[in-house]
């Protein structure tokens, strides 16, 4: 009958509109997060401006689950700075402190040795086979500030994907 | 309409409305506000549509006729029951969201206040390093020199953890040049005189009060952060903001290390960390230890014989939240022996 079709139509249109609104707002949240991330990358000059501390090798200063803000500038690397570096062959960047610096006179290149505050020995065991020093191109940035505990969200969502899925489900409901 | 039957819910709604209007007329009421949650009836009434295909709409002319009797008649829509419940739920969600956002904002503001520098507190640590003994000094098979030494390190970093009230008085006295020295601490003048000063290196004394515009120096004051430091950045971390964290409002952990710095023909700078330690709180800020070098002191090459070097004590302040900062004391006058031992 005419009015049954009409009423079904009206009910469906309300729900579709709300669903579309939710999808659009979710999309806007995601894209604004992406915009902020890219802007931070530009401002700080490093590939990943925010990292989460994954291990306890820098305790008691940085505990697992802390977030570090990185900044990369052209300033020379000096002893005592906390740097984030990538080792060839390892995908996860490491956050440790510089303990030795040898800077060349002619080229300005630098040999750097790092060590985690809470570790007993230096990082030569972590470096690639036969590598004794880090160079500037290994280093992604210096840690300039940090927030405690906030990184646990990322750790939990990465290590227990179930939580990520259920979180998204709750959001959609 | 009492005996009329409704074929569906909308007709029942329209009939109920008509009955209500009749009753109101009998009661002699003049001003009527009729609320219905049936959108279509309200719209049909308003638009005066002549489309009578839909059952309830046949009653629309009757409703208009009944409405004409009243002085002021309004027929408006009222949200459905479940929609109102949904809105209530939503408003709870919105309120919870607003509360959470507010709480997080307050937390962020407190963190940033705690991590801002207290510009009136200029840390002035002291340190002394003595090389008690050169245990051995050899050339490795790979051609690099290596040395092992025993050190006596004593330092006092307590000024980083506390307000120094004597310093505060000195600072504020400078502002208040016309008042006697024991004036009230918290009585600064509104318009301090400021001789323009060239933006100096960080060894220049400077102060911020008020925080914008003013930049003057007083060589009697110990070193503190100045506007030029903040704006043009003279901090070793190179981030452009020379704020030093405030360890009086929050807990900080200070990482201290002693490095030997020297120059060689091949390298413009060599820094080798010899010892490090962690100061977790103010109680441990004053210490003295005797130790051999924790990390092997190996040169790149064989340049150490007779070489002069500096001992620098670095400290890195890591506050609970906020920006980290670092500084150092340079002690000169150390040198290696001329021959291997």
TrEMBL record, chain A:
Record's keyword terms, sorted: Hydrolase, Membrane, Protease, Signal-anchor, Transmembrane, Transmembrane helix
Catalytic reaction equation(s): Cleavage of hydrophobic, N-terminal signal or leader sequences from secreted and periplasmic proteins
SUPFAM superfamilies per UniProt: LexA/Signal peptidase
Broad class of the protein's primary localization: endoplasmic reticulum
Annotated function: Catalytic component of the signal peptidase complex (SPC) which catalyzes the cleavage of N-terminal signal sequences from nascent proteins as they are translocated into the lumen of the endoplasmic reticulum. Specifically cleaves N-terminal signal peptides that contain a hydrophobic alpha-helix (h-region) shorter than 18-20 amino acids.
Family stated for the protein in its record: Belongs to the peptidase S26B family.
Name of this protein: Signal peptidase complex catalytic subunit SEC11
From TrEMBL, chain B:
Keywords assigned: Endoplasmic reticulum, Membrane, Signal-anchor, Transmembrane, Transmembrane helix
Molecular-function GO terms, alphabetical: nucleic acid binding; RNA-DNA hybrid ribonuclease activity
GO cellular component: signal peptidase complex
Keyword presence, Transmembrane: yes
Compartments it resides in: Endoplasmic reticulum membrane
InterPro entries: RNaseH_domain (IPR002156), SPC3 (IPR007653)
Transmembrane residue ranges: 92-116
Domain RNase H type-1 residue range list: 6-76
Biological process per Gene Ontology, one example term: signal peptide processing
Bilayer topology: Single-pass type II membrane protein
Entry keyword Ribonucleoprotein: no
Family: Belongs to the SPCS3 family.
Protein name: Signal peptidase complex subunit 3
